[in-house]
Amino acid sequence: MTSNTHSVETRKLCALAPIIPVLVVDDVAHARPLAEALVRGGLPVLEVTLRTPAALDVIAEMAKVEGGHVGAGTLVTPADVTAAKNAGATFGVSPGATDALLDATEAAGMPMLPGAATASEAMRLLARGYDMLKFFPAEASGGVPALKGIGGPLPQITFCPTGGINPDNAAGYLAQPNVLCAGGSWVAPGELVKAGAWDQIEALARAASQLPR
Ligand SMILES: O=C(O)C(=O)C[C@H](O)[C@H](O)COP(=O)(O)O
């Protein structure tokens, strides 16, 4: 792809830390302390999934946290893009991609990490200017061997694998030449968030931020 790629900004975000926490937050009161704990722990790039009724309010609160970069995950429709942008999301993540969705993020000027799980899906996105993709669902789609396979003929595409990544398998993904970062929910487990265990979450984030890549 030429220099008019749509992934320039997303790639910069993915370079900031080895892990992007994937956050499912039910209570807006948890948003700020959770984001602050993750940023303190060394994970400044945060993906808030649009899978809870509170998600847009959570994005708005987290966007106030200094040093953080708050994006919206689970973008599926153009309406999701508008809502996420209005809430203050500065980038978007989607499990897959449609032309309608990418038309919307491009029109909104929202950096995007679109999902792909096969060579054809990745090639379609590459043809449209996206060379930094979410590999989703990573473990279910073949994990590291699949990334190695796709990376043979398509080394110009870089991935953020997400889905089934954990502290035990993260290093194996990050060691791949076509992986820049990985997404995972393990740094903010639901029970620790509900308990307000911000120090424990900060410690999980710190360990994740120190994963080699
Ligand atoms: O809702 C979305 O848009 C998503 O991004 C789905 C997430 O990628 C996975 O839920 C994270 O997977 P785990 O780390 O295995 O929990």
Task: Using brief descriptors, characterize the structure shown.
213 residues, alpha/beta, TIM Barrel, six-stranded parallel β-sheet, three-stranded parallel β-sheet, 9 strands, binds 2-keto 3 deoxy 6 phospho gluconate, EC 4.1.2.14
Order of helices and strands: HEHEHEHEHEEHEHEHEHH
- Kindly identify the CATH topology: TIM Barrel
The count of helical stretches stands at: 10
CATH homologous superfamily, by name?
Aldolase class I
Q: Tell me roughly what share of residues is in helical segments.
A: 40-55%
- What small ligands are held by the chains? 2-keto 3 deoxy 6 phospho gluconate
What is the count of β-strands? 9
Distance between the termini: 24 Å
Average predicted local confidence, pLDDT = 97
Structure class: alpha/beta
β-strand amount? 15-25%
Strand order of the largest sheet: 5-4-3-2-1-9
Top-tier CATH class = Alpha Beta
Number of domains: 1
Keywords: Carbohydrate metabolism, Lyase, Schiff base
Organism: Sulfitobacter noctilucicola
Protein name: 2-dehydro-3-deoxy-phosphogluconate aldolase
GO molecular function: 2-dehydro-3-deoxy-phosphogluconate aldolase activity
